[in-house]
Amino acid sequence: MDTAITVLTERGYHGASMVEVARRASASKETLYSWFGNKRGLFEAVIHRNAASVQSLLKIPCNQDSAPKPVLIDFGCALLTLLLGEASIALNRAAIAETTADSSLAEVLTATGREETLPLFLEFLGWHQTKGNLRMHDINIAAEQFIGLLVGDLQIRRLLGVISEPGKKTNKQRATEATTAFLRLYGV
């Protein structure tokens, strides 16, 4: 899957081929087709893998004494790392380029990323509201505001190629600042 991202980054979705991915990964194309079905299946698997890395942070069981701040910072850092990383940028560019001809890659990206991650985030926020750690009038708006504070226009600027991928320290600082602002809005 890492090789597929490299090929996608270099050649774009149309230029990427299962044959080239197999050759560079020192695998047979029959193996790739057996595992993933086709090129779209390969990139869907990459999307699922990327989303799972962020979703796992929200599946950490909360306990009575847990505070939302450390999880929000870790989640924010992981989300920035994912959204602004080379793999996601390449996948998003491919999905955008394909949208007019075939929107299925964009649909998979949305369904697997946002549509699977957001409910976990809402559940996390709701748990903390129930425990009295957060006070939100509309949990959906609060979630959107956290993501807005966190990401801002960074993803768009990365997609346009006007900024480079930020490092871990920068992502951690941004996640900490977004969390601090969010907790000023909704913390008890």
Summarize the SSE layout with pairings:
Layout: H1 2-15, H2 18-24, H3 29-36, H4 39-58, H5 68-84, H6 86-98, H7 104-112, H8 114-130, H9 139-151, H10 154-160, H11 168-186
Search tags:
elongated, 188 residues, 77% helix, mainly alpha
Structure explained in plain terms:
- It is built from eleven helices and no strands.
- The protein is an all-alpha fold and 188 residues long.
- The model has no long low-confidence stretch (mean pLDDT 88).
What is shown here, in short?
The protein has eleven helices and no strands.
* Helicity range: over 70%
Oligomer type? single chain
Cα(first) to Cα(last) distance is 43 Å
Write down the overall geometry: elongated
Mean pLDDT: 88
The fraction of residues in strands falls at under 5%
Structural class: mainly alpha
Write down how many β-strands occur, each being a DSSP E stretch of 2 or more residues. 0
